[in-house]
Structure formats: structure tokens, C-alpha cells
Amino acid sequence: MSYLAFAWLASIVYGMYNVIGKLTSKYAIKNIWLFSFLYGLLTLLFTVPPALVNHVGIPSHWGYIIVSGVCNALYILFFVLAIQKLDVSVIGPLFNFRTAISLILSVLLLGESLSTIQLVLISIIFIAGIFVSVDERFSIRSFLQPSIFYGFCFTFFLALSINYINRGIVTEGYWETTLYSTVFSQICLCFTAPLFLRDITKVNRFQMAGVTGMALCLAIGNIFANRAFAVNVSVSSAITSLPISMFIVFALSRIRPELLEKHTLKVYVVRFAAAFVMIGAALAISL
């Protein structure tokens, strides 16, 4: 298949990742601590086989790996919180905060400087982020709510985790960093066990199916995305950044409004417009 096919497949699978996550949090697993633990565990289980096939070794330096693992655990916790509280049509575009946050982190952690154009694009992303969360009230208060804070936190810790993973890959290798970072992430999530021990004995197939679907979508999406990026980065980035999850939930809101979310057409127009502005600014920064 061409890189375009892989890019589109990655975009669709990533979109399903958000939708399955929302369905799981709404109908299957209410305990966010249990949800986070199971999701982290399944992600680890899907990471082990390819790591072993690629002859993963033991890292010689653990600093970046441990920090990235801790940040990834925090990302998972805040993502589960966000997906429980926010609409899917809000969560998808919030991932574009990651690009802006990554640039800010490069200044704080690496001492890099930002150009005027980059500062403008970062501002555009954050301003558009206000509009992507609007509801029928069309008030700025829709952005200034705790659930949006969860969304900002998961993108912050995701960006921070990726930053340290990339550093670890340079010195230790891809699979060594990826596998052991995931291991440390799961170790961190184990500390939340007292908050879900009563519920873990009641986990059923329906609940596991949702979490497994999420972890599988992430694993498959990453494989497709990596195949696409290996040939063409700019076009693949544009395709994989598309808010496919927004299109899915918009269609569902017309067919099954009680399933996930339902808003007026005016709200969705504003959210889609803001999402594409965020995507455009994020891509402009990346190019």
C-alpha cells in the first residue's frame, strides 16, 4: 500500500480510539482508576511482543526512561478523566495543544528560542482551543471549566512524555525506551490500586473489550502512522491530524443522539472550524 493509504488508516484508527474510549467510560467502566490501570496494562501487553521480536535489550541509562514513564502514567490518568467529562468532539482537537506545548517545553528544557511566527501560531492554537469547547451557551465559561483543565493536562503530560522518550531513543534505542517507559508507567499506575481493588474483581468481558479496543487502536494506529511517516512526513501529518473522531460523533449525533453526544448544528460548525484552525496552525509549526 502507498503511504497515503497508511496515513488514512492511521487517522481512522486514531479516531476510533477516542470514540471507543468515550463509549467505555460512559457505559462500561465508571471507575477512572480502574480504567487507567487496565488501559495501561493492555498497552504494555501489546508493546511486549514487537519489542521482543526486535531483540529489545537492557538500557544503560534510565533517567529519561523513568521520567517519560511517570509522565505517560499522568497522561493516561488525565486522558481518562477528560474522556469521561468531555465530548469526543472536544477531546480530538485538544491533541493539537501538544504541538504548542512541545515548543514551549523546548524553550524551558532545552533553552531554544521561538520565532515571532511560532509565537503567533502558538497563540492561534490556544485561542482556537477556546472555541472548540463551546456549547449552546456560546460562553467563554464553557472553556473555563475543570474538564478542560483535564484536557490541557493530558496534552501537557503527553508532550512531556514524548519529549523524554525522544531523548531516550537517541541514547538507548527505540524499543528499549518504548518498552521500559511503558513498564515504569504501569508501575506508577499500580500505586492507585487501593482506589480500584474492589472493582477489579468485578471486571467483565464487556469492560475488557472496551479497554482492549482502545489499546489495540493505539497500537495499530502507531504502526500505520510510522509506515506513512517513513515515506512522507508533511502529508502524512496533515492526514493523521484530521479530526476523524469529530466526524464519527457528529454522524452518530444525527443517527443515535442518546449514544454519545448531541448539539445544535451551529455548535458543531464552530467546533469544526476551531479544530481545523488548530490543525492548520499545528501543521504550520511542524513544517
**Helix count from the secondary structure assignment:** 13
Tell me the span between the first and last alpha carbons: 25 Å
What proportion of the residues form beta strands (DSSP E)?
Answer: under 5%
User: Radius of gyration in whole Å, from Cα?
Assistant: 19 Å
Kindly state the percentage of residues in helix.
over 70%
**From the helix content, strand content and strand pairing, which structural class follows?**
mainly alpha
Tally of discrete structural domains? 1
Give average pLDDT, whole number.
Answer: 88
Total strands: the figure is 0
**What is the N-to-C succession of helices and strands?**
HHHHHHHHHHHHH
User: What ranges have pLDDT less than 50 throughout 5 or more consecutive residues?
Assistant: none
Which sheet architecture does the biggest sheet show? none
Keywords: Membrane, Transmembrane, Transmembrane helix
Pfam families: EamA
Domain EamA: 3-133
Transmembrane segments: 6-25, 32-52, 64-83, 95-111, 117-135, 147-165, 177-197, 209-229, 235-253, 265-285
Brief overview, please?
The chain is mainly α and 287 residues long. The chain has helices spanning 3-27, 32-53, 63-85, 88-94, 97-110, 116-131, 146-172, 174-190, 197-200, 205-229, 233-240, 244-255, 265-286.
Using brief descriptors, characterize the structure shown.
287 residues; EmrE-like; transmembrane helix; transmembrane
